[in-house]
Structures are given as C-alpha cells and as structure tokens.
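Hi R.,

Here's the chain you asked about this morning:
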Amino acid sequence: MPFPQVEIQPRRSMTWFALLSIFMVAASYVFVILLAAACVYLPYLALAAGIGGFQIVALFLFGIVIAGAMLWSLLPRPDKFKAPGLLIERATQPRLFAELENIAGVLNEPMPKEVYLIGDVNAWVADRGGLMGIGSRRVMGLGLPLLSILTVSQFRAVLAHEFAHYYGGDTSLGPWVYKTQTAIVRAFQNIGSVGQLARIAILGVMYVVVATLMKWYFVVFLRAINLVSRQKEHRADELACLIAGRQPLIDGLRAIHGAVPAWPAYWKTELAPMLNDGAVPGIGDGFARFIAVPGIHQQIQKNLEKEIQEAKANPYDTHPPLRDRIAATERLPAGFIPEDSNPARSLLDQADALELRYLEQMNPDMKPGTLKCVSWDEVGTRVTIPAWKKFTSEYSSALEGVTAASLPDQIPKLRQIGSGIRDPKGMLLDPHQRTQRAGYLFGAALALALLDHGWTLHSGPGIFHLQRGDERLNPFSIMEQLMASKLTPQAWIAQCNALGIGQLLLAPAAPRQLDLLDANSAPQKV
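And here is the predicted structure, written out as tokens:
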C-alpha cells in the first residue's frame, strides 16, 4: 500500500551549502592550476630577467615536472564501479522492493537502478559509473546486518534517510566532490614521487612550498565539504523523521551505532568457524541472537551510552555525533506512518537462500552447493561435535594416556605437537598459531570426554559452554588460561577433583557414546 504524500518544507540553508560544495570543487581546480602555473612561470621570469645560472635552470625544469604531475592528477578518471555485494532483484524480493518504492514515491524520486546486499552495518546511496557523474546510475547498498537488528519501522527510517540524499541532490554533487578529493590526494602522491628529485637545495625549497600550500588547501577543503556533509545528514534525518517517524529513526540510529563494533566480532568468532566447517547457519538470525545475549547486550548498551555522552564534534567528520543527531531528531515531528515492530528481516523472501547467495557472490572461489544449510539450534550436534570427533581421531596419538587432570603437563609439549598438525586448507600457520591449534586439540578432546560422561553442550551465537546440573565449563577457555598461565595447575586439579572429572581419558574411545550422526540427520545442501 503506497504511503501518503508529505509536505516538505524547503530549507534555504541547504542551497547555500550546495553552493559551498560547488565553490570548493571549482576552487580546487583553479588553485591547483594556478599553483602549477606558478611553479613554471616564476622560474621563467627569473630566466627572462637574466638571472641565469644552473640552479635557476634546474628550478625551471623541476617546476615543469612538478606542474605536470599536478595537472596530470586533475585529469578525471572513469568511475570503475565494482559490485559491492549481491545484486537484489525485484522478482525475488517483492516485499523489500515494495518498501523501497513506497519511500521513493513519497519523495517523488526514481528508484535506484541497482540495489545490493552488503556485509556492513550500514546503508548508502550513490551515483556511480560514468565520468565525473556524467553517465552515472543510481545504486543503493543495504547492509545485511541491518535487516536483523532493525524493525520494519526503523528500517523504513533508514531507507527514508538514504532516499533523502537523492532528494537533496547529494548524490549528484557527490561524484564531483569525491573525484575532486581523490584528485587532490593523487596530486599529493605525485608531488611526493617527484620530490625525490629535489636534491638541489633550491629545488627542495620549491617542493616544500608546494607541498605546504597543497596541505593547507586540503585542510580547508576537507573542513568545508565535511561541514556540508554533516548538514546534509541532519537534513536527511529530518526528512526520514517526517516520513517514517521520529522514534523509529532514533531507535534505528541507536541500534546501528551499537551493532557496528559487534558485527566483526560476530563474524570472526561465530560465523567464520562454521563456514570453515562447510556449514552456513542463518547469518542474520545468528547476529540477532548474538547481540541479544545478556552479557553482549549489556556491553553494547554500555559502549553506546559512552559514545553518546563522550563523543565530540570533529570538523573532519562526515557525520554529526550520534548525540547531536538524536538531539536534533527529538525536536522534529513524530511522523505519520503507523509503526511496524516486526523484524525487518521479515521483508525478505527465502532469507537463508539469499544469504547463501551472498556468501557465494563474495567468495567467487567457492563452488555453489558446497555449503550445508543448518539452523543455529542444530550447529552443536550436526557440525561442532562431528568436527571435534574428526579432529581428535586424526591426532589421537597425542592424546594417549592424557587425563583431564594432567592437561597442565601437556602445555610445554604443545609447540611440538602443533608442528605435527597439518594446516587448515588454504592457510599457512606460523609456530604460534600451530601451538594454539594444538591447544584446541586438547580442548576438543576434553569437551568430548565431558559429553561422554553426562555433560551437555550449550552453543549458539555468543553462547558456548558444557553443563551438568548447575556446573558449567568451557574446555577451550580452560586451555587458553592454562597456556597463558592465568590458571595454575594446582587450581585446575582442584577444580577437576571438585567436579569429579580428573581421571577422564581424553583419547578417543571406540566407539564413543556420542557417535557421529547417521546419514538421515546429515545437513541438506541447497
């Protein structure tokens, strides 16, 4: 159902900020051209005035070189756009595109030509391709994590914010500003390369003067365009609030800022090991579970409040501090679209299959169909435990005669044991990593021994321990503490005696009580 049209009040100040951007772009080219001309013309005047000598001639030639480097830097380059993620099509995701089209309709803006699913806690719009924006096309990137952490209403606010950048013409000016900035950076690099020729004192003076003037101008340029950028973000927030609502925008901003540092940790500690084992649980579902774990949720909220309270405005930031954005939004109207508290992920059709396609898109060396789809609730029994059994069976000789209580005796041997463990496919481990891998071997063996004696595995995003009654134990954490000398042998032996696990043998028994799952429960490929 299309959203009703809204009345958008023009902001005269945004016109002035747009003019400032245009002025800075034009001024940049004029400045560099004039500076390049001065590098040639001033030595030429000296030669024309009869002030000869080798140094003036060298200065003139060096001025030609450095001027050529600067002018070459200004020449526009074609925008080579590389797909940032998985291209999403309306035919496969009609509900998601319906939301996009509703927001576009409210602002009377054309839809992006391409919409990509990206692996960042972010969303963006741009005009890409062509030359200096000429011949470009509209593209949009939607972060996969956003669909997991936001409600539909909060996601609408994010979409409205991004479409507001289209509405305000930000993406039209964007290529010019970006290309100008990269041209100045390129000029710095080229000046630096020719600066190696400035071995004669007078040439060094010219090089220092040119580099200093370029630096001063670049500082002014960055401060000006980032001031404009921050104002555009406030204006986009204003339009997003007008369309999608004040509170969804505030809550969405808080959720995004809180999730940004959590996403890399989730990917590295929870998802990457599953992919290495050839399994792919729900990426979005797992991230939602990960940030909902009480300890992780509390840490996210703590970091978020610290960011809000302590963040300071920086003239080189492209976005205002979260505190300022929230404060400005709280003064805006409440919006008119009814709130939808359903998760934004509900807008996706066949989300798991879409995520699998995303992984295959971002890993072109991965053969389609090589990953097994599993649910997070099944990861422990269908992936983790079988992987432990395979690993410990392959290196069972290192575990012979080792008991839980004698684990500290194995710490000095881990380096030697690790040297005999093959590297994971496609990786070349250093000696420290091989030692860590040997520690993992004993951790897996201890975990299997505990499972054989009545302990239960509890695993999921942000959760991992073995439990028996009220007792909890993380074998891999135990190994890490023993290896780092944070847990003394005496303390570990005392803990083993208290738990009654000191005499558990770690070498694989044949057969174990928890054998590999039968073929009927094997993960299905998609």
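One quick note: The longest strand covers residues 137-143.

Cheers,
M.
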